[in-house]
Amino acid sequence: MGLKLISVASEKGGVGKSTTAVTLAAHLSESGKTLLVDADERLHSAWKWTTKKEGYEGWNFDVLKYADFTEKLAGEYEYVVLDTKGGEGKSELTTLAAASKLLIIPCKPDGLSADGLVETLQPLLAGAVTNYRVLLTDVPPAPNSDGLDLRLELDAAEIPLFAHSIRHAVAVSKAAREGVRVRDVKGDRYAKLVWMDYQIVCREVVKYVG
Ligand SMILES: Nc1ncnc2c1ncn2[C@@H]1O[C@H](COP(=O)(O)OP(=O)(O)OP(=O)(O)O)[C@@H](O)[C@H]1O
Ligand SMILES: [Mg+2]
Question: How many Å lie between the centroid of ligand 1 and the Cα of residue 45?
Fold first, then answer.
């Protein structure tokens, strides 16, 4: 069984990479032994989020900073999720895709992102890289149609997309602050819903990586 390395990266910062890496690792750990690797040496958001709360037993995966990660260690896991720093260059995305089974590129529909994103993805398209998918994150609720508009635009540009999107939910930042899984944020029903969004995306990921 080859290493199932799932990388989360984007040229743009603040698009939901760490949220996706942490929450996806939490879901993947239900299917197999999972390691989360935090390669953002500047912020270490994923590492901080998942090591913050003392005595919390919600995390079923291991977490490492990239400096402590070795290929030998990776062999002990079914899934390895790699969170990267913001602002990956275009060639870095291609390199990451080559090293990964699947490259996830989160994107927030802020009304401007489609053109920039299509441009960012050009090297992947030109290099005939196919093992990546864009994940729409932080999608505002109806009647706002930014998420839908972006999905249609990216689909028209033949950009591979996850079929399911991640909704906007303030529970996400609360979860990171509290150091818990988003489903464990109390008193906010959107916490469960956004957790379920990631669960659906996780099924797509598992289907993809086998
Ligand atoms: N679905 C969501 N709903 C609401 N807020 C969200 C959602 N996803 C992410 N956010 C918020 O957006 C901000 C950026 O998210 P996150 O840190 O996951 O992005 P990032 O791409 O890892 O950023 P960076 O490039 O700085 O590493 C955070 O404040 C996070 O709580
Ligand atoms: Mg991050």
Answer: 10
Label residue 112 by pLDDT band (50, 70, 90): low
Question: Reduced to 3 states, what is the DSSP secondary structure of residue 151?
Answer: helix
Coil vs helix vs strand at 200: helix
Surrounding residues of ion ligand 2, Cβ less than 5 A: 17-18, 45
DSSP string, 163-180: SS-PBP-THHHHHHHHTS
Query: In the beta sheet, which residues pair with residue 102?
Result: 6
What is the DSSP code (8-state) at residue 161? B
- Domain with residue 179: its CATH number is 3.40.50.300
Put the strands of the sheet holding 34-39 in their side by side order: 62-65, 34-39, 79-84, 4-8, 102-107, 132-136
Q: How many domains does the chain have?
A: 1
pLDDT tens, residue by residue, 58-109: 999 999 999 999 989 999 999 999 999 988 777 889 999 999 999 999 999 9
The range of the structural domain enclosing residue 178 comes to 4-209
Helix (H, G, I), strand (E, B) or coil at 191: helix
d(CA 162, CA 204): 7
Tokens of 206: 């598992």
Q: Is the CB of 6 under 6 A from ligand 1?
A: no
